[in-house]
Amino acid sequence: MKVFVLFVAVAVATWQCQGSDEGDDHGANFQIFPLRMKTGLGGHYIPEVSCQSWMLGVEAHNIIGFSTVPKDCIGYIGNYLVGDQYRSDSKTVCREAYFYLKTLNITDKDAWVFDIDETTLSNLPYYADHGFGAEPYNPAAFDKWVDLGAAPALPESLKLYRKLVSLGVKIVFITGRPLSQRDVTASNLKRAGYDKWDWLITKDPSIYNGKTAVTYKSKERRKIEEEGYNIIGNIGDQWSDILGTNVGGRTFKLPDPMYYIS
Ligand SMILES: [Mg+2]
After folding, report:
1. What is the pTM of this model?
2. Which of 124, 148, 172, 231 could form an SS bridge with 199, CB 3.0 to 4.6 Å?
3. Could you say which residues form the signal peptide (predicted)?
4. Are the C-beta atoms of residues 160 and 95 closer than 8 Å to each other?
5. C-alpha 119 – ligand 1 centre gap (Å)
6. Beta pairing class for 230-236 and 250-253
7. CA 118 to ligand 1 center in whole angstroms
8. How far is the CA of 212 from the centre of ligand 1 (A)?
């Protein structure tokens, strides 16, 4: 009896591994996993699985140009951002930056580029009230939030900033925030603990109106390098912070599942 059961088990396993001979020659009997993967005990739908896949797609820059977070994922993304995972992921990114810094001989011409929103400052208090990116972007409401100058620091980025300052690295902030929000951004940075910098670059609409963040940030980084500085590192939450030219010796991508800026 035992031998028979073993035989059946091996036969079933072999069939499952090879696929049946029915159908075409390309193993098409294996269903390609749909995005809404059925899993778990009983094969029922677990939204977390597809939301996690969606987030991975965003972080890997496979999903681009999205305007809102999928409605089904509000809970998943909210839990991610306000829970420990976001902090842990950010810590992992910054730890790699420390390892990288250890390999360098820092000079007084070395500079480090920080993005601001979702990199040095966190707008989570705002997004928590606006569906964590599931609501369409509302520029008037967001500007009102920015103008409060109350955004807290991302703790891991603040720690990295302090390390860089202690090493004598020049600090560069380049943000997509407009020139009109420069003063409130400066006071917000100070309030959050970023008390000094060498450049705080905001987007001048007379030069960059209609231009992408990649174009704007590349040009501003180039200006700094043309002044004789060497950008050793660059950190941001958007791919547009770290793509383009003059991106720096190494780039570091912080997580941001809430919005996409090209
Ligand atoms: Mg940002």
Report:
1. 0.84
2. 172
3. 1-19
4. no
5. 6
6. parallel
7. 5
8. 13
* Buried residues in 145-154 as b, exposed as e (16+ CB within 10 A): bbeebebebb
Residue 230 within a domain: yes
What is the distance in A from the centroid of ligand 1 to the CA of 127? 13
Could you tell me the CATH number of the domain that includes residue 69?
3.40.50.1000
User: Quick one: tokens of 174?
Assistant: 């380049």
Residue 112 located in a structural domain: yes
pLDDT in tens, 143-160: 999 999 999 999 999 999
**How far is the centre of ligand 1, averaged over its atoms, from the C-alpha of 75 (Å)?**
22
Q: Are residues 165 and 196 in contact, defined by beta-carbon separation less than 8 angstroms? A: yes
Q: Cα of 8 to ligand 1 centre, how many Å?
A: 57
CA of 232 to the centre of ligand 1 (A): 19
Rounded-to-integer distance, Cα 53 and Cα 33, Å: 12
pLDDT digits (tens, 9 = 90+) for 88-134: 999 999 999 999 999 999 999 999 999 999 999 999 999 999 999 99
Q: 24 C-alpha vs ligand 1 centroid, how far in Å?
A: 48
Residue 13 belongs to a domain: no
Is 102 a member of any domain?
yes
Distance from residue 236's CA to the centre of ligand 1 (Å): 6
C-alpha of residue 242 to centroid of ligand 1, in Å = 11
Under DSSP, is residue 202 helix (H, G, I), strand (E, B) or coil?
strand
Q: Domain tally for the chain?
A: 1
Pairing of strands 230-236, 110-114: parallel
| CA 166 / ligand 1 centre spacing (Å) | 24
Q: Which domain holds residue 236?
A: 50-253
